[in-house]
UniProtKB/TrEMBL annotation:
This is Transposase, IS4 family protein. Pfam families: DDE_Tnp_1, DUF4372. The lineage of its organism: Bacteria, Bacillati, Bacillota, Negativicutes, Selenomonadales. Residues 99-310 form the Transposase IS4-like domain. The keyword DNA-binding applies. Keywords: DNA recombination, DNA-binding, Transposition. It comes from the Bacteria. GO terms for molecular function: DNA binding; transposase activity. PANTHER family: TRANSPOSASE INSL FOR INSERTION SEQUENCE ELEMENT IS186A-RELATED. The keyword DNA-binding applies.
């Protein structure tokens, strides 16, 4: 692979090449193996994995050394490549909006202070922060750009790295990204955004708008801030609405053409990124780390994102009724097993009449046909050279 070759990752490496390491790390992610010793044991006991990699054993110390020495930016570039392939497929389907909806947020992963002194956070603990942008397209959300920092880094300091500046983009974020000076700059440059406003914001109402739906409580044109702190020179649109629990929510945006109710719905879509973070933390290995160095920890986060994208790429080829968790479970059970074993598992007759199982079985025939076309080489999305 060109990324690996240009980085010189395999120079002087005889046994555990980078693509073999990538495959092992993906298996660790999918199976929830949270230590290098578990990965080494898996390889020693798994004859099929040995045959696939042409590798009979590897020590935990060798795995640690390889992960430590490979620059995490190599994994970041691989993530960008896999993400690009997902987008090529996603753009073939889905309803086309008049805007590209991008949701930006961050999630903190706490670490042991004694082991991770470099990850500055609090007096009693360390931590890192995953700053993520996802794009919502055709009712589905796809991971886009990401930035890794120490947990102490404020969200708004990485806005410029994640905000999409194209005219058709609409960026959505929460109160952690409130920055009047930055918002003024976005207004000057024509960068559209939707954000929730802090409760203590200083608001100068310039104009009251009529409200035409019960979903929206009020709509105003306002100027934020004051001369004693920071005041925006550009007026923005303020929309008052309520969340699902009935709590008041104040939204501001420099998008002036879309209906207020649609702006409210757009902000509600921000919840998709919370679901993304929840899925990553529950089903992939991002809370127990194989190494303690910054490079090793960041590399593992990028590997988890690569694994997520590979699962999502497979999901794109399957019926919509199949969830990402079901795809993960199928990968766990049939990652490199014979295809007829998958057919047998999916073709088992139900033990009792169950309307839910019957409706699911109706889609399994199509699922089997699609997976039959994919074969067992779905990980070739990264590179055919993986199968050495």
């Amino acid at each position: 692979m060109q990324v690996v070759a240009s980085a010189g990752c395999d120079r002087y490496v005889k046994k555990l090449k980078t693509l073999k390491l990538l495959y092992l790390m993906l298996i660790a992610q999918f199976l929830g193996l949270d230590s290098l010793r578990d990965i080494a044991t898996r390889l020693t006991c798994d004859k099929q994995l040995q045959k696939l990699l042409h590798l009979t054993s590897i020590s935990a110390s060798t795995l640690s050394r390889r992960l430590r020495n490979i620059d995490h930016r190599v994994w970041e570039q691989l993530f960008a490549e896999v993400k690009r392939q997902i987008w090529q497929q996603a753009n073939k389907t889905g309803a086309v909006r008049q805007y590209q909806l991008n949701v930006i947020d961050s999630s903190t992963i706490t670490l042991c202070l004694r082991k991770y002194l470099w990850a500055d956070y609090r007096k009693t603990k360390s931590g890192i922060k995953l700053h993520q942008r996802i794009t919502i397209h055709g009712g589905n959300s796809y991971p886009d750009s990401a930035v890794l920092t120490s947990a102490r880094k404020a969200d708004k300091t990485v806005m410029d790295e994640l905000v999409v500046t194209s005219p058709d983009a609409l960026n959505v974020f929460d109160r952690g990204y409130v920055d009047y000076a930055k918002w003024d700059d976005y207004c000057r440059k024509g960068i559209r955004f939707v954000s929730r406003l802090k409760s203590n914001a200083i608001i100068d109402v310039l104009e009251e708008k009529s409200v035409e739906t019960n979903q929206v409580l009020a709509e105003k044109i306002v100027r934020l801030g004051n001369a004693y702190t920071t005041q925006m020179t550009h007026p923005v649109r303020l929309i008052e609405t309520r969340d699902n629990q009935g709590n008041a929510v104040i939204i501001v945006t420099n998008e002036l053409t879309l209906p207020a109710a649609e702006i409210s719905d757009i902000y509600c879509m921000r919840w998709q990124i919370e679901l993304f973070f929840k899925w990553i933390k529950q089903h992939l290995v991002v809370k127990e780390f194989f190494g303690t160095s910054q490079n090793a920890v960041y590399g593992q986060i990028w590997l988890a994102l690569i694994g997520y994208c590979l699962l999502q790429n497979l999901q794109q080829e399957l019926p919509k009724s199949v969830s990402l968790l079901e795809v993960l479970r199928a990968a766990q059970m049939f990652l490199y097993q014979a295809f007829n074993e998958l057919i047998a598992a999916l073709s088992r007759p139900p033990t009792k009449t169950n309307h839910g199982r019957q409706s699911l079985d109706a889609g399994y025939d199509q699922l089997i046909q699609i997976i039959d076309q994919l074969g067992t080489d779905w990980l070739d999305i990264v590179d055919e050279g993986m199968y050495l």
